[in-house]
Write a structure and sequence with these properties.
One of its GO terms (biological process) is nucleotide-excision repair. This protein is α/β, with parallel strands linked by helices and about 850 residues long. Helix content is about 35%, strand content about 15%. The radius of gyration is 30 Å and the shape is globular. Bound molecules: adenosine-5'-triphosphate (ATP). The site of adenosine-5'-triphosphate has 17 residues, from helix 12.
């Protein structure tokens, strides 16, 4: 089916206005250059689209490297090695005379696009780039995007044509568009949309309106054998129709419940936004042509293989759901409530999903606290078929149900929760089930009612599958989910499409391409998420801690030393004090559960970790939210995601998971939804405390990479003015610091030998970790307890009893007395 041109009028509108503004900018840009419809490039006739070709040549064309310019490079000289010995010398790309007025430059080898964010055309160019390319980095002045086959497929799927993309990129580009990029765009997009994967009667079919394409697939050595013999069918399908737009400017194609006094027809036409892509679709979709479609069946087990292979041979398989023509599955009574207004970026993201009037599967990326839940609910209200929502925990499953009831008019009986405790089915023909990933993927024998519920889920077709927090779920879990549950469309939601293990690419074919990624800075400028001041506080190690840090080879002890560095604890105390006085509510994060407990107790604050019981968690969180005297709570990594504490306005991180960019972003997310974010001059604060000259510094820089790409800048604070003079500063004598050091060493050793009740929380003592022989340098004096070093038995049982006995010593007596006192204070 040919892509529809008008569907992309939002983007094209932006491009047009870009042309207009370019024409009005001073400088040598001529109207013909920037504003002319008489394009030099980009008319379909001039794009060198391949004619007939075999599968192998399609495979060869897949990589951008295939399109490299064959331009002769300049002579190799002494500086050449800095430019890949001439390979990265792009001086052959001639700048246009008016290049200063054009905002982008494109790397002909890697498809990277650099945008000058200070250009007068930046806004218009950004609107376009977000549609055709993937944002990589968006700090203040220069943005970086990447043209990929996936991003180009996404652009085509909202109705742009290769010629539009080429022409517009060329207009914005400082140099003539490299021929490698032109060919890459033309060829990557030429086969898009020719092959589809559809579900009919709970069976998967590969479908195309071009019989020759199907023949090619059937001849392919991987796809051919997957066909279920004797299942070929030919049907007719009607062309795209517009998604119903009730006329509200914020609808994004969503049917909203109308207030009773206002019928849909009452809405004056001027309220409809002309630049709304969905609106354009509605105008466009009167031509309702039918066409013949040919299909063959593939077994469930072959779906992923076929999807992967199709991607490799450049016939990307499209998962689209023509929900309005689905008469087989019952319609669900669901609309947004009349007072529900979705925000512009939520609308934009949904217009990418429903850009051509059908539901495309894919992933929407919005910052934490930007309202992914409402985006999911709006998608369900658009499709209006059975919907299954998968969450990461039982708590968030219940939250999702509540949000559905809050924002939509769904009948409470039509939305049920399937968790270990609750296994209700909806009563009507269709409905919504909210469940968790483990509930549907758990292997082994299930309880009777759980099995019955699973049979219910697997025996029917679902219109939409909403996948919350897609970034945390391993690919094999998705495989299980999709093989168990048949859904016509899938929408993944996340704030951080990041994995340190590079597995994120798997989501491309398991769910679909990234449909939309919002700009964090833009949303915070608009007040949808809080503005945050980020700072990295460098805490020097005390001499005795640093000596031990340098001496030991034990990674666990090293980590405990830089985390428990007394100067860091003092900085934490000082910052808590400072922000409590300002009226902030503070969350202190520590991945290391040992440090979490010790520091919380030392500072007399409450903490929550994996081992904290549910009732106690609720009690602590409620106190944090509603008790004006409880202003600080310590959280282990269980608080990283899905915790809604809009009261929190300040974060202090004392230990974290190595270089995890995702965790850093998720933690920052806990304050992005701060209630007070729209107060005049309000700022939230995010402090990361790191021990100077230790490996923690290296990890810290890595962790910040994602946020820096989103435009956040981290101030480095080397000294907290006034800290030394603070009254009641902990560990403020050499004796106390030495005692703390002893305790850290003893506890590290003791804990190594014991089963850790917080193993799920604690990265350094994860269960199953092998112990090796450890040899450390030391003196006899140290061994005998001189110089504040403690004697440590290496046998497990001895360690336990040593610790027990140690409780009787003066040091431990005092220590445990302090803990008890702090605990009592925290509970008051
Ligand atoms: N269009 C809207 N109008 C009013 N409030 C909204 C809108 N969209 C979202 N919100 C509110 O913003 C807050 C954050 O929403 P939500 O919990 O869905 O964020 P999230 O993106 O899922 O965050 P996280 O990634 O941290 O889970 C909620 O209180 C929600 O009610």
């Amino acid at each position: 089916m040919p892509p529809k041109r008008k569907a992309a009028s939002a983007v094209q509108g932006a491009v047009k206005s870009g042309r207009a503004s370019a024409a009005s900018t001073p400088g040598p840009a001529t109207p013909r250059d920037l504003d002319s419809d008489d394009d030099d490039f980009g008319s379909p006739g001039q794009v060198d689209l391949p004619a007939e070709e075999d599968i192998q040549s399609a495979v060869d064309r897949f990589s951008l490297a295939h399109y490299q310019d064959q331009t002769v490079r300049g002579p190799v000289d002494a500086a050449s090695r800095h430019f890949g010995n001439g390979r990265r010398d792009f001086s052959y790309l001639n700048l246009k005379p008016d290049h200063k007025d054009r905002p982008i430059w494109i790397d002909p080898q890697r498809g990277r696009i650099i945008l000058e964010n200070f250009s007068a055309l930046a806004e218009t160019a950004k609107d376009f780039l977000i549609t055709v390319a993937e944002p990589l980095s968006r700090p203040t002045f220069l943005h970086e995007y990447s043209l990929t086959t996936h991003s180009l497929y996404a652009a085509i799927s909202v109705g742009l044509q290769a010629s539009d993309i080429i022409a517009t990129l060329d207009r914005f580009s400082k140099t003539e568009l490299p021929s490698s990029i032109r060919a890459f765009i033309a060829n990557s997009t030429s086969a898009y949309g020719k092959v589809k994967l559809v579900i009919k009667n709970t069976k998967y079919y590969v479908e195309s309106s071009d019989p020759e394409v199907l023949q090619k697939l059937l001849k392919d050595p991987v796809i051919g054998p997957c066909r279920v013999q004797g299942t070929d069918i030919t049907t007719t399908t009607s062309n795209m129709q517009s998604v119903v737009i009730p006329g509200t400017s914020n609808a994004a194609g969503v049917q909203q419940v109308k207030p009773s006094d206002k019928s849909q027809e009452d809405v004056p036409p001027e309220q409809a936004q002309p630049e709304n892509a969905m609106q354009a679709l509605r105008e466009d979709d009167d031509d309702d042509n039918s066409e013949a479609v040919h299909a063959f069946e593939i077994p469930d087990s072959a779906v992923e293989t076929v999807q992967k292979r199709c991607l490799t041979i450049q016939f990307p398989i499209l998962e689209e759901y023509d929900f309005r023509n689905d008469d087989r599955n019952a319609n669900l009574e669901i609309d947004l409530k009349p007072n529900t207004q979705i925000r512009s970026y939520q609308e934009k993201s949904l217009s990418k999903m429903f850009g051509n009037g059908r539901a495309k599967s894919g992933i929407i990326v919005l910052p934490c606290g930007a309202g992914k839940t409402l985006v999911g609910i709006t998608a369900a209200c658009t499709i209006k078929k059975g919907c299954i929502v998968l969450c990461t925990s039982t708590m968030s499953a219940h939250q999702w149900r509540q949000e559905f009831l809050k924002w939509s008019n769904i009948h409470p009986k039509d939305i049920t929760v399937f968790t270990a405790e609750k296994k209700d089915k909806f009563e009507g023909n269709t409905g919504i089930i909210v469940t968790t990933y483990p509930m549907v993927t758990q292997s082994g024998k299930r309880a009777y009612d759980s099995q019955k519920m699973m049979d219910f889920l697997t025996s029917r077709e679902w219109g939409l599958m909403l996948l919350d927090e897609v970034h945390v779920v391993p690919a094999n879990i998705f495989r299980k989910v999709s093989s168990h549950i048949k859904s016509h469309s899938k929408l993944g939601l996340t704030a951080t499409l990041l994995r340190e293990d590079d597995k994120i690419g798997d989501l491309n074919f398991l769910i679909g391409p990234k449909l939309y990624e919002a700009n964090w800075m833009e949303l915070s400028e608009q007040g949808h998420i809080a503005k945050v001041q980020c700072a990295e506080v460098w805490c020097p190690m005390t001499t005795e801690f640093y000596d031990e840090y340098l001496r030991t080879n034990d990674r666990g002890l090293k980590a405990n030393l830089y985390i428990m560095n007394p100067r860091k604890i003092q900085a934490c105390q000082f910052l808590i004090n400072y922000h409590e006085q300002r009226g902030d509510k503070i969350i202190v994060f520590s991945d290391n559960v040992y440090a979490l407990k010790e520091v919380a107790l030392a500072l007399g604050k409450a903490y929550i970790c994996g081992a904290t019981g549910n009732n106690e968690r609720i009690r602590i969180l409620e106190n944090f939210m509603y008790n004006p005297n409880i202003k600080t709570v310590f959280l282990s990594k269980i608080g990283d995601t899905s915790l809604d504490l809009p009261e929190a306005t300040c974060l202090i991180q004392i230990s974290s998971h190595y270089g995890s960019r995702r965790q850093e972003a998720q933690r920052l997310g806990r304050i992005l939804r701060a209630k007070r974010r729209n107060d005049e001059g309000f700022n939230a604060f995010f402090y990361s405390l790191v021990s100077k000259d230790t490996t923690e510094m290296y990890y810290s820089t890595k962790r910040q990479a994602f946020l820096v790409d989103q435009g956040y800048s981290f101030k480095v604070i080397t000294q907290l003015a006034g800290m030394e003079q603070m009254e009641g500063l902990v560990f403020n004598s050499a004796q106390l610091r030495r005692e703390l050091l002893q305790k850290v060493i003893v506890d590290t050793e003791a804990k190594r030998g014991m089963d850790d009740e917080d193993a799920t929380d604690d990265l350094f003592y994860a269960k199953g970790r092998k112990r090796g022989v450890r040899r450390t340098a030391g003196t006899l004096g140290e061994l005998s307890g001189g110089q504040d070093m403690a004697y440590i038995e290496q046998r497990k049982s001895a360690n336990k009893s040593l610790k027990k006995n140690n409780k009787q010593s003066d040091f431990f007596k005092k220590h445990y007395r302090d803990i008890a006192r702090n605990k009592a204070n925290a509970q008051q």
